[in-house]
Amino acid sequence: MVLPAKEIEYKNVWGVKTKVNVMDIKEICAEKIRAANDRIRYRDFYDLHLLFEYFKFDLEEIIELMKKKEVRKTISQKNIFNNWKLARQEKEIELGRIYYAENITDLMIENLIGKLKVSLNPAGEK
């Protein structure tokens, strides 16, 4: 983690209140971009769309944050789009495991990917 954790109040299923540390929402967004780049799971694209929809992130700020994190694999718009093509094929299977609240079209996700003009390479790689 790069950003400090946020402390929030939490009440569990038994009604017990406590405080927990959670990742800063900007860091969660950076990690979702990495996930969309590194693996093929529809839920990563779904989550990423909702993050940008609800939090109106400044993409440049998220990219600057990503530059401070360890990059093990090249992160690029091309990789993300290629993973999206494969994840879209598994969408129906994954939707059965996602308790989603909003219907998001493939076009909405593709429009978001079109805005993700990111290109980060692991240290030492050009």
Record keyword descriptors for this entry.
6 helices; 126 residues; globular; 13% strand; alpha+beta; 52% helix
Element-level helix/strand string: EEHHHEHHHE
Query: Biggest sheet, open or closed, and with what strands and sense?
Result: 2 strands, antiparallel
- Radius of gyration, CA atoms, in whole angstroms: 16 Å
The helix content is 40-55%
Report the β-strand fraction as a percent range. Answer: 5-15%
Low-confidence stretches: none
The DSSP helix count reads 6
Kindly name the structural category.
Answer: alpha+beta
What is the β-strand count? 4
* Biggest sheet: strand arrangement: 1-2
Number of individual domains: 1
Write down the overall mean pLDDT: 90
**Distance N terminus to C terminus?**
24 Å
Principal-axes geometry comes out as: globular
Can you describe this structure?
This protein has helices at 25-38, 42-55, 59-67, 77-89, 91-95, 106-115; strands at 6-11, 17-22, 75-76, 119-120. The protein has one domain. With 126 residues, the protein is of the alpha+beta class. A two-stranded antiparallel ribbon has the order 1-2.
